[in-house]
Amino acid sequence: MSLSPRKQTFIQGAMILLAAGLVNRLLGFVPRIALPRLIGAEGVGLVQLVFPFFIVVLTIITGGLPLAVAKLVAAADSRGAADEAVRIRRTAMAIALTASLTVGGLCLVLSDWISSTLMTDPRVHTAFLAIIPVIPLVAVSAVWRGYFQGKQDMLPTAVSQTVETVVRIALSLTLAYLLLPWGLEAAAAGAMIGTGAGELAGLVALWLHLRGEGKPDGHTNPAERTTNRTNAERSPSFVQRQPGHGRALLKIALPVTGSRMIGSLSYLFESILTTRALIAAGLAAAAATAQYGILQGMVIPLLLLPGTLTFSLATSLVPSLSEAAARGDRAAIQKRLHQSMRLALVTGAPFIILMALFAQPICELIYDDPDAGAMLGLLAPAAVFLYMQAPLQAALQALDRPGTALFNTFVGALVKLILILQLASKPELGIRGAVIAIGANMALVTLLHWISVVRLTGFRVLPSDFIKIGAAMTVMGAVALWIWNAGRLPGAALDLIAAGTASIVVYLLLLVAMRLVDRDDAARIPIIGRLFR
To answer: Exposure of 506 by Cβ count < 10 A (0-12 exposed, 13-18 middle, 19+ buried)?
Structure first.
């Protein structure tokens, strides 16, 4: 019998999730541009102060639970045990709802202390309260997504993520704009309410898919549908009646949650320590919030935008590298690693050049905030390490060394937090100290990943390719500066667009001329790669 009529192959499922991820990453940049223009750096700072705490809460509640659900449901599905898969889902739902309601209640009780003491700016209180109802919604969505992924049906996850993103963007911006007359605190809360509405819309999309499971589809007989529906509609406490499932879920979920907590706590401590260090340097709380909003709400998203491409490359790298490692094919491992590193640099290099040379006009054009330009110009050169980090981390995952990647990330986070305390608290550095700390973190984690990969595989780079990339970057920068300095178009915005477009065209021509990109490279790119095979 077919328990998962909409089941996709591994490659089809990966491509569905990857396509949705790319679309959502690109769509997610829309509010990054629009929100600062609506509520300014200080309003963005209020949102950014709430968000890290929200991420920590979600990690505690859902961290490894979707993975655990997917793994156990897949095992049950392979045995033809549809009723067991439903029980696993409902057991996970009981765990997630219990945890989310408990943590949500604690957040509500401690909201005054969290917003005034932990976050340093009491104006975040309203936004913090607005995000609490989202916690159980995310918990339920996480379980259902894990359930569908376990049944190898990736379409519900992809659809719900896209629906959530679109609704969140539309309502966050709309509510922030409508509530702005009542102050920045209300506008920030409006943005958080929009986030909750997006999560609710995504949850509804998942529920519709779940509801459709019981409908006739030509693949199951009436007896199977009746059995599945009967089991799905049972509502006892499966944590009590099925202790085996509860223990199995927690056994998988807790270690994953613990590992993900490192990144989430690092993000939270970064927000707390940065604002506290800036206050220690002599800034008022409002000014510290505004500067942190510029850094995390404007500068970092610009740096992460090219990461959409390197993320795609890293996703493509994992299965091929895992296959080569399983065969013990060191030559294939070397080839794929070198190819992924070269492509990561090739795709990230033009963005680094443009952001380094034109940081201030870019920030004026996108955000109408020239203050962000100084931070972007200082951090842009370090982005080369950020773009190289994705394939290196993917390589460690593919080579079955996730613990090594976790340790490297932990060391980098610890050094970053120490540097923020030491540098951002100096009046002569201020927010630039935090920028330096973040850049140092990018470089250190990438270097540690590099050393780990070299020790595992004996990986060595071919200097000639990287010299060619450096030459292409130099020529591209020269062309961009020549067009910008000529200033022959009406308006700085047009000059910037012309300089960027022309220099990227020159850069692409140089890549082809120096054979830095070939058909085999293009074939590694997810989704469009099949056009070159």
So the answer is: middle
